[in-house]
Amino acid sequence: IGVKSVLGADVIGGVSSRQGFESDVESAECTRAYVERRQSQLELIATRMKDKVNYALLSAYADGKGTDELSQAVRDAFNGLVTNSKCKLITQAEAGAAFNVGRNDAMRLAGVVTHRWVTPEGGCKADHGQLDSKEQRVGDKFCNEKGLGFPCDPLAEPASVVGCRCIAVPVKSE
């Protein structure tokens, strides 16, 4: 008799110890359907939360608030469930993204063809040091495996953006 475990339920000879599952195949199909449904729900929650945080940041910025007030707006958006240090990190990441998106768009509009990655004095994210002084066409990726088109690129993996203090500077125009 074969024994498998499907999400903690022992399946012996095609019969699950969990009520409602008649075979490991049905169990796997039900599990896959549940995970897909749940993933969609979680993505919707994440989108709503991101929208709420972005609105809080934009409102606070429009009111002329400083970094501490922006961080508090993020904390309020999370109903106080996130630590002050995490809120500050989120605020810095969003501010960096806004700054660098604007900078990248301005370079593109000004006819800049090539830009150079510049890491800050005093250090940077470990994997960003290898990008220092690298030149790339505006619109191309500096780092394909990370998806970085420019520093703090909001379309890149969050791990590559959070804590980034780098900038891109124009090198060559049309």
Structural write-up:
By secondary structure, this protein is α+β, with helices and mostly antiparallel strands. The chain has four helices and six strands; from the N terminus they run E-E-E-H-H-H-E-E-H-E. A three-stranded antiparallel beta sheet has the order 1-2-3, covered by helices on one side. A three-stranded antiparallel beta sheet has the order 5-4-6, with helices on one face. Strand 2 and strand 3 form a beta hairpin. Helix 2 crosses helix 3. The longest helix has 39 residues. It is globular and about 55 Å long. The N terminus is likely disordered.
List the helices and strands and how they pair.
Elements: E1 3-6, E2 9-12, E3 15-16, H1 24-62, H2 67-77, H3 84-109, E4 112-118, E5 135-137, H4 158-161, E6 167-173
Antiparallel strand pairs: 1-2, 2-3, 4-5, 4-6
Mean pLDDT: 80
The span between the termini is: 72 Å
Strand content: 15-25%
Radius of gyration: 23 Å
What's the helix-strand series?
A: EEEHHHEEHE
Q: Helical content, roughly?
A: 40-55%
Counting helices, strands and paired strands, the structural category is: alpha+beta
Poorly predicted spans: 1-22
List the quaternary state of the chains.
Answer: single chain
